[in-house]
Design brief:
The complex is a heterodimer of chains A (about 325) and B (about 260). Chain A is of the alpha/beta class and about 325 residues long. Chain A is built from 12 helices and 14 strands. In chain A, the strands form 3 sheets. Chain A has a 6-stranded mixed β-sheet with strand order 6-7-8-3-9-10, with helices on both faces. A 4-stranded antiparallel β-sheet of chain A has the order 2-1-4-5. A 4-stranded antiparallel β-sheet of chain A has the order 12-13-11-14, with helices on one face. Chain B starts with a helix and ends with a helix. Chain B is about 75% helix and about 0% strand. Chain B is mainly alpha-helical and about 260 residues long. Chain B is elongated. In chain B, helix 3 packs parallel to helix 6. The chains are: A alpha/beta (about 325), B mainly alpha (about 260). The interface between A and B is medium-sized, with 31 and 25 residues. Bound molecules: adenosine-5'-triphosphate (ATP) and magnesium ion.
Amino acid sequence: MPVPSVSARRGASEHSVVAEGLTKRYGDRLAVDGLDLAVRRGTVLGLLGPNGAGKTTTVRMLATLTRPDGGRAEVGGHDVRREPALVRRRIGLAGQHPAVDEIVTARQNLVLFGRLFHLGRAAARARADELIAAFTLQEAADRQVKGFSGGMRRRLDLACSMILAPDVLFLDEPTTGLDPRGRGEVWDAVRGLTATGTTVILTTHYLEEADRLADRIAVIDHGRKITEDTPAGLKRAVGGARIEVVVADPSWLPAARRAVARVARGEGPDTDEEALRVHAAVDDEVAALTEVARTLQDEGTPVADIGLRRPTLDEAFLRLTAAGGAA
Amino acid sequence: MSALSWAVADCLTLVRRELLHMSRQPSLLAWGLGFPIVSVLLFVYVFGSAMDVGDGADYVAYAMPGMFAMTMAFGFTNTAMVMAVERDRGVLDRFRSMPMAPSAVVTGRGVADIAQATLDLVVMAVIALVIGWRSDGGFLATLHAFGLLVLLRFALTWVGVWLGLLVPSIEAAGNLFAVAFPLGMVSSVFTPPHLMPDWLGFLAMWNPVSSTAGAVRELFGNPAPAGDSWIEQNALLMAHVWPVLVTAVFLALALRRYRALSD
Ligand SMILES: Nc1ncnc2c1ncn2[C@@H]1O[C@H](COP(=O)(O)OP(=O)(O)OP(=O)(O)O)[C@@H](O)[C@H]1O
Ligand SMILES: [Mg+2]
């Protein structure tokens, strides 16, 4: 197949996935509403959003499974609508449910998909061996998939989706329903892939997963992109770190409020009388912490605990999608 | 390799996949044949003595071709089930995201079903021989008869593909047997249509399964007289025409349905 010349020509392009105004309508409902994406080669984009946000529909359009109603998308340098066959040579897809055959062995699955990817018999076998080793499925390779654990099945499914070492890999909720160990196994597999230059687009409901795997996160709601940023940037955008002071006795709360007020950003400190806690958003985290600590010490205020707390990605997500829903 | 030779190669790969599945699940074959086998035994041994199909003809000779035809007719529910399962489990999505020939999923199904049908017929023929059925039609006519049976199954495969992609869920595909049952029963499989109430007999006569059953009886050299309506007199012709018509209509519908997966 004369693939190399084409990919060499396209190799210069910086983004392996570009979407502009991508739109999909089901009935009178816009599942995806003018989505723009640009994913740099070799990076991981996490698509995050509540149920029905349009994540799966987006992935399906990019993977040539669903025809967009509007906009355009290029994957691996080819237009998904005009050159689906060329796109399909460059992508791998692992849907929400592992699409492997249960009643045959892991090896037979891999060889079968290898043949369907137009590898010769020997090449398909060799590739199966490689992938079995890469996904540490050696022991189970010749057993029926029926008896596999969820994590093993996912790993086999991932292996099947990367027979041709795809330029772009789409993973729709790759770890849904897995226990922490199975999740870790899949994460390792994805990291191994990106190390070899594959671009990954993954959808997930697990913020921890996006935080760990994604270089950038696009938050989607109602078919639109609310925001896109790095995981750290997202957390910052939602409000940077907060300083927290916990005192030993209610009588010290006013002193703590005064100290925290000196560094607080915006409306000033919030007080939680029951927990004996004073907290406020701050800009310069380390300076604020030092300043408050010094003030309290100089005044002789007894402190039970003092520290910085960063918002979790969960908080960022809930706040962003709540705002998007209201808009 | 050209696009066409890839299409053939991909089709054969998928057929091999189906054969592998079959060989791994012999129990499925047994289940699929359970109904026709039980029916044969029931009808031949329980009702057979009470059945008079005319001119003192042997009931086994009458019912056996009907059983063959009915088994072929019911096969499409299995096709529909497999298609629905592969769609819902994401297997079709994976195939469609791969650089394989898009037609292979549908053509591979057709070829795999022929293989399945042949196997079903071999098993049934052995059972038929055991209970005393014989073909009096000579080698070529007998072969022709089995060819027509496979042809019926092949034509109905497209009905199965179409329905399997049409039904909303795997459970709904499981209920398709309710559609297939009258298709098999309202026919000349067990009783000659002229013994039925007029309207039912009319439906039974024009049922493609009846044409195949009638043609197969003729080719097996069955002595039971066919009815004197045009459709019954021309069973041999219609056993060729019906499958071609059904294929023309339902292959087109099936392909359209397959393409509609990307809507
Ligand atoms: N084939 C379809 N027919 C009709 N509506 C659809 C179809 N596929 C998706 N939708 C609708 O489009 C919207 C987006 O669905 P989509 O599956 O893309 O969401 P999602 O972000 O993947 O959700 P989840 O997190 O639940 O998987 C939903 O309102 C859904 O009901
Ligand atoms: Mg989804």
